[in-house]
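so i finally got all the pieces together for this one. its two components total, 464 residues if u count the protein bits. some of the lines might not be protein, just check the labels. i wanna see the whole assembly predicted at once instead of chain by chain like last time, that was a mess tbh
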Amino acid sequence: MAKRISQSAVNWAALAERVPAEQKAHLAAFKIKSDNYLRRVLANPPEPPKINWAVYKQAVPIPGMVDTFQKQYEALKIPYPADTQTALVESQWNQVKNAIDAFIQESNANIASYQKEINATKALLPYDQMTMEDFYDAHPDLALDPIKKPTFWPHTPEEQLDYVDPEKQTQPTTAAAAH
Amino acid sequence: MSKLMFSQSSLVIIKLLWSKLSKFLTMIFRPFIQPRFNKQFLFVPNFILAHTSTCPASKPKCGASAGKGGTTSIKKIDFKRAEKSAPCRFGFIPEEWFQFFHSKTGVTGPYIFGLVFVNYLVSKEIYVLEHEYYSGLSYVVILYFISKKMAPGIGASLDKEVDAEIAEWEKGRADQMKVFETTIKDAKDAQWRAEGQKILIEAKKENVAMQLEAVYRERAMRLYQMVKGRLDYHVKKRRTENKLHQKWMIAWILENVHKSITADFQKQALNQAIKDLALAASRVK
C-alpha cells in the first residue's frame, strides 16, 4: 500500500508568493482542482466504520448468513489503486529541473555580465574630471575620433558629406503614396 | 691623409645624422602624408599612446600600442584635475615663483629681481617701449576692469552650463546603474520564482496521492455500504414480516370473534348492559 494521505501538506501561501502575477489565474485554477480532490478525500473516512456483527446475528433470522457475510467481508481487502501518474510527474519534474537549471545558469551569466557593466560604470572617472581622452576611453562611440572616423568641422552629423536629410528622404515615398 | 680621414669620418657622421633626421621627419609628417594611417607605424614611445590608469579596462582599447603592456607599465597616479589655476600675485605672477625666491633672497628678493630684470630689459632695449607697449597699457586697464566687474557673472553662467552638462552625464550614469541593478534584481527574483516550481511539483504529486486516496476511500465505503445495506435489508425485512404477521393475526382473531357473535348473544349483552346501568343508577341514588 502506498503512503496514505489525510490532509494537504502544500504551503499554498509560499507557492502563491512565488508565482508571477501573470500566472496567478493558472494557480487559482490549479488550487481549485486540488481543493476538489481534498474535499473528495475528506468526504469519506479513512477506514469504513466497523459493522456490529453481533447485533445482526441476533436480528437476522436466516442461520449462517451473517457468519458467511462476516467471513467474506473480512476476507475482502480493497486494493489501493495503482499509482501510474507519480512517475509522469517525476519525469516532468526532471525536465522542469533541467529547464530551471539552464535558466538559472543563463540568468547568472546575465547577472555576471551586468555586474561587470556596473563595475565598469562605477570605475569611470567622474565626468567633471575627465579629459577628452578619458571621455574617449569611456565612450568610444560618442567621443570625437579623428583617426578612426574623421569628420568635418563642426563635427555635427548634418555637416558631413554622407548626411541624408530625413525629410528629403521621406518626401518621395509620401508623394508615391499620394498617387 | 689626415684630411681624407676627416672627410671620411665626417661623411659617416652626416650619413648617420641624415638617417636620424629622415626618421624624425617621417615620424613628424607621416600623419599628414598618409591620412588613414595605422598607429603601429608611428614611431612614438609606447608610454605616450598607452592607456592611462583611469582608462577602464572593459572598454575597447583606443591606443594601438596597448597590446604591448602599456597599461601594466603605467604607475597608478591618483590625482584630480585642477579646477582652478594656482594662486598668483598681481593677478598674473605665479605664487610659486615667489616661493622659489623666498628661501634664497627673502621676501623682497623676487620684487627686486623683477624690478632689476625689467630695468635691464628696458635699458638694453631688449624690450622696446614702442606704440604697442602704450596700447598694451590701455588694454591692461580695460582687461582689469572687465575681470573685476564682469568676469564673476560670466564665470558663474559658464560654470552653470558646465555643471548642467556634467549633471546630465552623471544622471545618465546613475540611470544606467539603476537599470542594471533592477535587471539584476529582477533576474534574481525570476530565479527565486523558478525554484518555486518545486513546490508546484510537490503539489502535483500530492494531488495524485489525494485522488488515489479518495478512490480507495470511496471503494472501501462502497463495500461497507453494500454489506451493511444487505444486512439492514434482512433486518428490516424481518421486522416488516413480523409486523405483517401481527396484523394478520389480529385481523383473523377479530374476524373469528365477530363471526362467533350471534343476534341472541347481542340482545343478551344489551339487556345485561341496561341492567348494569340501572344498577349503577340505583347505587348513585
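Chain A has a mean pLDDT of 84.
DSSP finds seven helices and no strands in chain A.
anyway lmk what u think
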